[in-house]
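Figure 6 in text form: structure in, sequence out.
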């Protein structure tokens, strides 16, 4: 079981599906945080020991600037962005990188590959 904080995009259905699959998941809208800035999202995820799920590429820059090990983030960078496409994919591949997320990582799920980068990102070259 993992703990997730779902950003505004993907939808609330992502959090619902993760809960059905046995994970703990909260969506920003459910927490009354739909207008929260990225720094607030990071602070909440770190405080509550949650992995952020997002399609927002700004999170990578924030992670690099913070030089923090947590929170981890799963970033969806796929052409198909619907929950119906992303949720089954996430649930299928999650066991492959769950330990990385527990230790602190950025996981980028793209159309043709999945990239995993250990945190902190600062000073690292890809």
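Output sequence:
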């Amino acid at each position: 079981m993992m703990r997730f904080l779902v950003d505004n995009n993907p939808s609330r259905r992502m959090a619902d599906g993760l809960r059905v699959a046995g994970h703990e998941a909260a969506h920003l809208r459910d927490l009354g945080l739909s207008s929260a800035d990225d720094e607030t999202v990071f602070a909440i995820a770190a405080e509550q020991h949650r992995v952020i799920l997002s399609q927002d590429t700004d999170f990578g820059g924030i992670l690099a600037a913070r030089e923090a090990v947590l929170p981890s983030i799963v970033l969806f960078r796929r052409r198909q962005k619907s929950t119906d496409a992303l949720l089954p994919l996430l649930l299928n591949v999650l066991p492959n990188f769950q330990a990385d997320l527990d230790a602190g990582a950025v996981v980028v799920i793209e159309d043709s590959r999945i990239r995993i980068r250990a945190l902190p990102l600062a000073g690292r070259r890809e």
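Caption detail: Residues 5 and 52 are 5 Å apart (CA to CA).
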